[in-house]
Design a protein that fits this description.
The chain is mainly α and 107 residues long. Helices cover 73% and strands 0% of the residues.
Length: 107
Amino acid sequence: TILNFRKLLFSAMKEVLGKRVPFVMNSVIDFKEHYSGSEKALEQLDYLAITAGLECVVDPKLKSALVTQCDVNQQDYMLWCLMLIFVAIGLPTLASNEQSMYQPALA
């Protein structure tokens, strides 16, 4: 599949760069492992690591593609927050009621 091909490309890139420019690869690995700074700088460091063939927890290119696809609507967010509050308030009330019972046939 595409993800297996991607892993194969990453391993090939890491191996070739490790042989041809080991000082650059060691620097990139060192930056990735030891840097703890701002979120923006970490994102740029992830771009550098991906380019060098290193795996990252969050793929920056995939993240940017997903962010462009997402349309965060404030009204939807508020609706789901209110739904969670409704469940959090209603569940203990239903659980303490003697007449309420779970019927798996209805689920």
